[in-house]
Amino acid sequence: MSQRPLPPRDRRIARDLGRDCRRRLRAQRRGAFHPWIGMVGAVGWMIALPTVAGALLGHWLDHRGVGGPASWTLTLLLAGLALGCLGGWQWLQRESHRDDESNDPPDDEARR
Fold first, then answer.
1. Dist. CA 112–CA 107, nearest whole Å
2. Count of Cβ atoms closer than 10 Å to residue 4 Cβ
3. CA dihedral sign, ordered 30, 34, 16, 95
4. In this predicted model, which residue has the larger pLDDT, 47 or 38?
């Protein structure tokens, strides 16, 4: 008795599940607690550092008397936050792409 091919939706679910399992196994072999914990910390720092740097630079400019009624602190804090979020998002996209194109051989089940 031959097996029927999986519908496209089920093939996609099987592929994603296989990728997640391989990611967890790689993390276990490296001794990582959880594969996403490190990413969360890295993205947090990627957002926090530009935000704080923008706020400090803005505060320094405000105390120097540069500019008029606009608050440099708030402006540069928001600019740093936006840059940090953009950088974190791009890094997560790159990491996700790298996991998808991993050197691990694909599962036979995911290909059906």
1. 9
2. 7
3. negative
4. 47
